[in-house]
Predict the 3D structure of the following.
Amino acid sequence: MKALEIMKPFARLLALGLATFGGIVTSQAPELTQQYRQRIGGALDELRVLVETFDRQASENALDREKALGIYAASIEPFLRQQGATMRSAIDRFQALKAQDEALADATPILKPFVLLRDADSAVLTNTWRDFIPAVPVSVPGLIWAGIGFAAGWFMTSLTAFLSRGAYRLGAGRRYRLLH
């Protein structure tokens, strides 16, 4: 039992450290979401120019978007079919990013990280993570996420300590029975 008494201050300090670490890590969720959204905005700006140019050129030739893409798809030239497939892919990506940007804009600040994770564009998320710059959470969502992370870290450490004490007591009881 004396060993347990000696370990209590260390365990509390460890729990506080891990809880603080959890708070710091999760407090970055709103900042990651913000930086991700900025990248989506840049991608949307570039794709919008491409899609609007394509639509304008189709219109100048008395075509709508689908008819113009159909001409590409029906071409006997492999290059033109590939160009059509590339354009369709760019349009689809533009629409998907636009929908996600709107979903992020409509979400409450605390839920935005969940919206991001639900439907993230892998290329944008990878690049956002690669260039991510942590920030001090001074916003309400950042502080709430820090609190959630702190509580989760404290809970996990407390649960681990509780289970460890139980295992220690179980082992001590077995040793006592073996010796007597």
Observations:
- Residues 25 and 149 are 7 Å apart (CA to CA).
- Residues 140-179 form the longest helix (40 residues).
- The chain is about 85% helix and 0% strand.
